[in-house]
């Protein structure tokens, strides 16, 4: 994955989504969201520089090297051993970089009814959230948001895409405890 | 459906077989009647000549007749005899209709009418005739309003005709609230909209700046409940349809809310409240703000729906390991499981008559819309596709509308309707993609 921080900051300058995970809603993100959740009408725009992925304190490093997302099996919300390891890494990074706040997004694939998938994706976000807390990240730095099947990143209707959409994404923004 | 005259459908079929071109009408005696039951024969032939212009009606005289014909034909229970085949010409609303001319083309029902327009005021009159009995079916009726509401006048005529012939309530003079969709699958934009049941007169209620889901009309149709992400997080939201003013309900720190539905009296809302990853059902009294927890389980409880008498709630839960349907008292409790077949069951909706539950079923990679009795018996699947979801009942409990989504990168949602017998599947014409329909009650 190649990140283009300048292009992203340009997007932010146009008042579009200033989320720092450029691909979490697929390319662009016009329908994605200010305030981290799909609402130009709803929230503030926070702009976060991604920085150099070789700098361990950068957002780019968190997204790419630590890993900002974990995947789930069909209709499951329990973290796999691999997912646990990624979230423990996220917790360590967050403890070392206390100026960042976090929104933990939960997502589901399209094989399910909408409202059930909101419940399921809430569980997924909560699994990550709870592990982050148990690893020492203060609860007041974090929020969760369940997106159900509303924001797939992959659009095909087969397991190759579904497996990428059954995810929880830990999204950073500046302003911990604010 | 059995075409009229008692339920002697078998006799009618036998006669048809014997005499070939012989019309079913000749096997008839007794009043014009469609029994909406299981055995289909054929749609009842009817005619709607252009309405008589009694002053200033212009295009309305013809357009109203066209909407009436389209309403009735769209049910699958009626078949219009095209105007080109008509022998009789109706030039005066009050003169006799000449039954022989209509018999000759086998029109079993004829609707005649007249329209008067002055300024922005429109008056529509109609009569319904049972051709083979040679008499009027019910009284003539007159509707008046502004010219803007001309389609509603037509729907009201069609509702009256449908109701007199089938003995069931109508559903044409209704609105549907839904989610209008645009943009690619990974950047879907959604906005709330309302339209006539047939897709006409679309009006947008929100912009597309935030996700909206699963709207529902209040029992009087003047308010809408839905799930909105306007705050960045899912929140149940109440909108006044007249002013478009919105209000977030049941806001509590550390919680999110979704899947709101009105109680039959319109005063309470049952919905899902999420806390720490767990979703349970709650009841909110809109007036007092009082909140009551109805379920208390570590599973996902959502998609609630009141029984029409307000005493019970059907909902879905995965407490057994998969999504299944349960019914509990409206005051809360454990609930008893009603779905018993294979697969997953969700989005239950209690029928307006109280006797059935419509649902979404997932089984072996396919989605279905189905209905069952409230005790779980007589399950019947009405549709099958890659993704069918979210049934809503027409106010007469005979037709269901739902979302059908196609697969793949270019996948798009559209609205469909189907009879509870599984017949007459048809797409509702909308301007672009659409999902999450919810039917209004019959308009006053």
From TrEMBL, chain A:
* PROSITE patterns, A to Z: OMPA_2, PROKAR_LIPOPROTEIN
Record's bilayer topology term: Lipid-anchor
- Could you tell me which SUPFAM superfamilies the record lists for this protein? OmpA-like
Keywords tagged on the record: Cell cycle, Cell division, Cell outer membrane, Lipoprotein, Membrane, Palmitate, Signal
- Extract the signal peptide range: 1-17
Gene3D superfamilies, A to Z? OmpA-like domain
Q: Where in the cell is it found?
A: Cell outer membrane
Please verify whether the record's keywords include Magnesium.
no
- Whether Transit peptide counts among this entry's keywords is no
| Stretches assigned to coiled coil | none
Per the database record, which ranges form the OmpA-like domain? 59-176
Q: Which Pfam families match?
A: OmpA
Q: Which family does it belong to?
A: Belongs to the Pal lipoprotein family.
* Function of the protein: Part of the Tol-Pal system, which plays a role in outer membrane invagination during cell division and is important for maintaining outer membrane integrity.
Q: How does it assemble?
A: The Tol-Pal system is composed of five core proteins: the inner membrane proteins TolA, TolQ and TolR, the periplasmic protein TolB and the outer membrane protein Pal. They form a network linking the inner and outer membranes and the peptidoglycan layer.
The protein depicted here goes by the name Peptidoglycan-associated lipoprotein
Automatic annotation (TrEMBL), chain B:
| Span of domain TolB N-terminal | 32-137
Superkingdom to which the source organism belongs? Bacteria
Task: List localization entries.
Answer: Periplasm
Q: Does the keyword Chloroplast apply?
A: no
Principal location class: periplasm
PANTHER family reported in the protein's UniProt record: PROTEIN TOLB, PROTEIN TOLB HOMOLOG
Q: Outline the subunit composition.
A: The Tol-Pal system is composed of five core proteins: the inner membrane proteins TolA, TolQ and TolR, the periplasmic protein TolB and the outer membrane protein Pal. They form a network linking the inner and outer membranes and the peptidoglycan layer.
State the family named in the UniProt similarity comment for this chain. Belongs to the TolB family.
Task: Provide the function of this protein.
Answer: Part of the Tol-Pal system, which plays a role in outer membrane invagination during cell division and is important for maintaining outer membrane integrity.
Q: This protein is called what?
A: Tol-Pal system protein TolB
